[in-house]
Amino acid sequence: MSTSFIYRHETIYGLLMRGLYGRHYGARYRAIAALIPEGAQVLDLCCGPATLYTRHLRAKSVRYTGLDLNERFVAGLTAAGADAQVWDLHSALPLPAADYVLMQASLYHFLPEPEPVLDRMLTAARQRVIIAEPIKNLTSSGNKVLARLGGRFTDPGDGASAHRFTEETLDELFRGYPEHIEERSLIAGGREKLYVLKP
Asked: For 159-178, what is each residue's pLDDT tens digit?
C-alpha cells in the first residue's frame, strides 16, 4: 500500500494534527499521560512520531516501547533514545507484555474487524488498556470533497483510511467488552473518546 504524504514527513504530520485539534491538541495527550504512573512499562501501538512519549511520558521515567508500521517514525523514535519497532499489527503475532497498552487515534485502521487487535491488547496488558479514538474527523464530513481528502491524506499505508468510527459505532464495539470497561469519557474538546479497560 502507498503511504500518504503526511505519514512520510514527521513535521507535516505534527502540523496537521495541531491544525485538526487546535487548542485541544495538547489536551489529547495529557488525558492519556495522566492515567499512566511514574515508572510504568508502556506499550504504545501505532505510535507515530511518539509525541505522547517525548512530551509527556519521558519525564515520568516510563519504560516505553513504541510499535508502528512506518519505518521513518520508528527510526526517529529510536534516535530519540526510546525502544521502537516496526510492527504490522494486522498480523496475529502476540504483542509484547506491558503494564499499560495504549493506542491513540488508530483503532480505525483495523475496521471492519477491530476485535482481534483489541483482544491482543487485553492479553498483553498487565494493568490497563487505554484507547482514545477520534469520533469527529474529516472523513465523516458532509462535504464529499473534504471527506475524500481526509481519507486520501491520512492513510498510513494500510489501505484502511476510508473507514472511521462515530461515537455510536465506537460505543457499539465496546459493548462487547462490558466486563473490561473501567472508564469512558470524551477528550480533546469532544473530538476523541477515551476508553480505559481492565485486562
From this structure: 444 578 999 999 999 999 99
